[in-house]
Design a protein that fits this description.
With 424 residues, the protein is an alpha+beta fold. It is built from 14 helices and 9 strands. Strands 1-2-6-3-5-4 form a 6-stranded mixed β-sheet, covered by helices on one side. Strands 7-9-8 form a 3-stranded antiparallel β-sheet, sandwiched between helices. The termini are far apart.
Length: 424
Amino acid sequence: MFERSVLPGGPRVISARLPGTRSLSVAVHVPVGSRHEDGPDAGLAHFMEHVTFRGTTTWPSSRAVSEAIEGVGGTANAATDRESTVFWTRLPVREAELAFLILGELVLVPRLDGDDIRREREIIVEEIRSYRDDPSQHVFGLWDTACFGDGPMGREIAGLEETVRALSDERVRSFHRERYTADRMVVAVAGDLPHDRVVALVAGAFGRGSGSLPPAAPAPDALPVRRYLPEARTTSQTNLCIGVPALRRDHPDQWALELLNAVLGEGGSSRLFLAVREEAGLAYDVHSFTTDYADAGTLQVYAGVDPADLVRATGAILAELAEELALTATAVRRHLGTLGDLGLVAAHERAPYGPSPKRGRGRPGSVYALTDEGRAALDQAYDDLALSALAFIEQQFGPEAVEAFAVDRARRLAGTMAPLPGDL
C-alpha cells in the first residue's frame, strides 16, 4: 500500500511501508531528461547525473560520498532517461536519516567545481565511445534514430562527443539552477518506515524551492521517421532490431501491450525464444521489449544472429509477430499468472534484506498465499485482462495487415539485405 503527500514548495513524497524489512530504498526522481535539451545541450541531463556525485557541501568529494554510503553497508547510483533522472540509495533502515541527507545534497547542492566538470567530460566521452563500440548496444541507438529522427527522441541520451566537450562550466551550473528545484522532484521510499516519518525526513533534507521546466520536445507526428537504418561493420555477428510505434505511457491499453510483449519475447517460454532460438537455432539472444514516453511508445524485438542467417532470422521474427493473433486466452492467462507473481516478487525485492521469494521450490511468487476471495478476484482480473489483450492485438495489427506486412517486408529484406550479410 502506498501513501502520498505533497510538501508545500517541496517534493511529492510516495512511500510504501514494508514491516519487518531491515533495508530502506530511497529514490529521487527529477523530471529532467534528454528530451528537455536542445541541440547544443545534448547530453547535459546525463552529464548532471554524473557530476553531482563529485561532491556536495557536506561530502565534498566523490570518495566522501561513496564512503558515507558504503561505510554503513549501503549502495547508491543514478540513471538518466529521456524524460527523467533518478538518484537512489539502498542501505540499512537504521541509517534512514543519512539516506535522505545525502540524496538531498546530491540533487540540490552539488559542488559543480570546474576541475570536477573537466574530469567528468572525459569520463562521459569514454562512456559514449563504449556504447558506440558495442554493436549490441549501438543498434538500439540506430533504431531510435530511425524511428524518432535526429531530434532529442532519437539522440543518444549521453549526447555526442562534440556536444559534451563543448559544455561550459557555467552552462552546467545554470542547467542545475533552472531544472533541479525541490518542488518538481518526487521522492519514493520503500522500507519499514511510517509515512509521517518519511515526510519529516524529506522536509528536513529537501526544503523548498521552485522553478520552471521548459516543455519537452514532442515526438514526431508521423512515426517511424525512417523505415530502415543499417550501419556496416566487420563483425562476426549481426545485431538486428525490428520494431513498431506503440503506445504512450498512460494509454488505457498499456497493460495489454505489456502482456502482448510478455507472450512475444520475455523469457524462455516466449514465442520468439522458442521459435527463433530453440527450434530454428538462429540466435543466442532474442527478446522483445517496450518503451513508453508521455506521448509515444515502441514495441521492439532484438536478435543477434550470424550474418549469413540475417534474412532467415528476420523472416522468423516477422512470422511470430504475425502469429501473435493466434494467441488463445489460455496462453494469455498463463503469462498473466507469471506477470502477477513477478509483480509480487518485484515489490518484495525493494527490501533486499527481507525473506527471499526464491527460496524453496515452486514458482518465484509461491511464498505468497491468497485467500479464496482474493484468488477469485484475481482470476476475474486475469479473464478481463486476457480479453482486453486479445482485443488490443486485433485492433493494433489486424490479421490481414500483419500478414501482408510480414510477407512484403520479408521479400524486401531478401532483396535489399542479401548483398550485405558480411558487412552487417
